[in-house]
Amino acid sequence: MERLGEGILRRTVIWLAASATLWFLASTAFTLFSAGPGAPAFTLLALLSFLPAFIFLPAGKGSILLDELRTVDADTGIEAFLETGEGAGAAAGLLARRALRLDADIDPGKGRLRRAFCGLLPLIGAAFLALALFESVSIALDRGPALGYRPPSAAPGSGLRTEELETIREGDNYDLTLRSQDEAEPAEAPAVTEAPGKGSPRSREEAVERAIRAEEAEGSGAEPGELGSPSAGSKLESPDADDRIPGAGPGTMMSREGPTSPRGGDSSAAGGSSPAEKGERAGGASQGRAGTTAAGKDESRKDAGLNRAGGYEGSAGPLSQSPLLDYRSRLFSALAQGGAGGDFAIGRKTDAAELREFERRFFDSFRLDSGLAPREDAYSMMLKRRWMAGGGER
Amino acid sequence: MKAHAPTQAMRIALLSASALAAGLLLYLGAAVLEHGLGLEGASAVCAEEALKTCIIVIGSILGSRIGPRRGAGLMAGKGARCGLLWGLAAIAAFAAIENLAYFLAFPGGGIFLRLLWAEPVHIVTGLAEASAVGMATQLRGAAVRRGPSARRGARGRPAALGFTAALLLAAAFSWHLAFNLAAGGDAGIAAKPGPMALAVAANAVALIAFGRLFARRILIGGFLYGQR
C-alpha cells in the first residue's frame, strides 16, 4: 500500500507539472489571440477533470511491487513459488524463510520522496519555462503579471452590466429578462431623440403636418383612396404606423426597435428573443440552448448567459429539472440545430411552432387594426383633422 | 523474425488514446441510450452504470492483450488488473468528458462545483464496479488454475466473492442514484453549501473506502497481500 501511495503521489506530481505547463502555454496563446472568457475556464476544467483519468491510467513502467521483488529476488525463486502456489513441495519452507528475510530488508519508506520526484525535473522545468513565457508575453502586452489569462470581458468596465452579472449569479432568469427590457428603454432614448420623425413631440408634429398635407392634397384632387384605403388605414392606426412614415428610414427603425423589444423583429428568425420564449427557457432551466440559430447568435449567446446559473447541481439557483439525466440530449439537440437548422424543440411540452403561434396571438392582441371604409365621410375626416391639429396621438 | 515490442512511450500513448476513446464512446453510448429510450431517474442511472461495468469487463478481458506484462508467468493475472485500471481510466475520462460537455451546454463558473459533486460519484462507482469485476475475474482465474476439484473445495469462498461483487454493483448503482436524486430534486440541495460540503465529504470517504478495497483486494491481492 505504501508503494501504491507513492505511485499516486508521483502521478500527482507529474499531473501538476504537466497541467501547469499546459495552462501557461494555453494562457500565452489566449493572451496573444485574445480568446473569449470561456476558453480559460474550459482549459482549467479540462485539466482538473482529467486528473482521475491520469491517475488511473496503467501506463507505469510496470508493477512497483514486482520490480522491488525482482530486485531482491534476482533468481525469481520466490516468484516461482508464489506462482505455483500449493505445488511448491519441498522448496516451500526454504523459499518462505527466504521471503521473510527479504521482506525484513525492504524498507518501503526509504527514499520515498526521492523516488516520487525522480526523473521529473525536466517536466517541472518545462512548467517554469512556460510560466516565464506567459509572464513575458503578459508583461509585454501591458497586462501585468498574472497566473493565468484574464479575458477582457472579466475586467472592470468591460461592458457587462453589474445587474446582469448579479442576476446570473442568483440564477433569477425571469428577473433578468424583465430588467433587460427595462434597461433597453433608456438605451433607446438617445437614438429616438436624434432621429426626427420618431416618438418625440417634434416628430409627432411633423407627422401631423405630413398627414394634414396629405389630406389637403387629397382634398385638392389627389387620389382619395390613398389615405382611405384599408391598408393605409391600418398603417395609420397600427402600432407600427410611426415606423412606416416615409422618411423615417430603416436606421431609425432599427434604433427604435431595441434588441429586447417585443416587436424586435421576427422572433423565430432571431433565435427566440421574445419574452415568451425567454420565459419558456427560464422555466426550463436550460432550454435556452435549443433556440440557437445563425441569425440569432448574439441573442442566443446572451440567452445562454441567462441560463448559466441554473440547471445543474452546484449552481446558485434551484434546480427545476434533473439536468444530470437529460442534459446530453439537450446539448445534442442544440448542436444538431446549430449545424442543420430547421425545426427544433424549445422544450419538452412546447415546440417551436406552437410557441410562435402563441407569440403571434399574444402580440396580435395589442394590434389596433380596424377596418375602414374605402372612402371616409366628411365628418370623419374633419374629426381626424382636428384630432391631428390638436396634437392627438394616433 | 521476432516482432519488436512497443516502446514505453508508444505504450503510454496507446493506453491513453484508447482510454480516452473508450470514455468518449461510453459518453456517446450513454447519451444515445438515454436519449433514444427516454430514460430518466433510476433507469438512466442503471443504464449508465451498466455501460460503465461493460467497459471495465472489456478492459479486464483485453487486459491480457494490452497489458504490459502479458504472458509473463507470475503476472498472468496482471494483465487483467491492468485492464481493470484501463477501464477505470476510461470511466474517469467519461466523467471528464461529461463535465466538459456540461460546460459547453451551460457555460458558467458553477461547473467547478459540479466537478466536486459529480465526478467523484463516477470515480467511486467505477471503483466499486472494478472491484466487483476484479472479484469475478479472480473467481474465474481460480477455477481455471485449480480445476473442478479445487473449485468444489473452495465452494464457500466463491459464493462470498460473488455475493460481495453483487453487493458492490448494487452499492455503485445506489450511490449514483442517491446523488442524482439529491441533485435533481426540486429543493436543489446541491446548490446549498451545507449539502455540497456533505456530499464532498461523503464522496471522499467513499473514495478512500472503495479505493482501499480495490487496491488491497484487486491490485495487490493474491500477490504479496493475498490469501497466503
**Oligomeric status of the shown chains?**
heterodimer
- Estimated helix fraction of chain B: over 70%
String of helices and strands of chain B:
HHHHHH
**N- to C-terminal separation of chain B?**
41 Å
In terms of DSSP E residues, the strand content of chain A is under 5%
What sort of overall outline of chain B do the alpha carbons produce when their principal axes are compared? globular
List the main descriptive attributes of the protein structure presented here.
heterodimer, A: about 400 residues, mainly alpha, 19 helices, B: about 230 residues, 6 helices, about 80% helix, about 0% strand, disordered C terminus
Written account of the structure:
The complex is a heterodimer of chains A (394) and B (228). Chain A is built from 19 helices and no strands. Chain A has 394 residues and is mainly α. Helix content of chain B is 80%, strand content 0%. In chain B, α2 packs across α3 and α2 crosses α5. Chain B starts with 7 loop residues before the first helix and ends in a 9-residue tail after the last helix. The interface between A and B is large, with 60 and 78 residues.
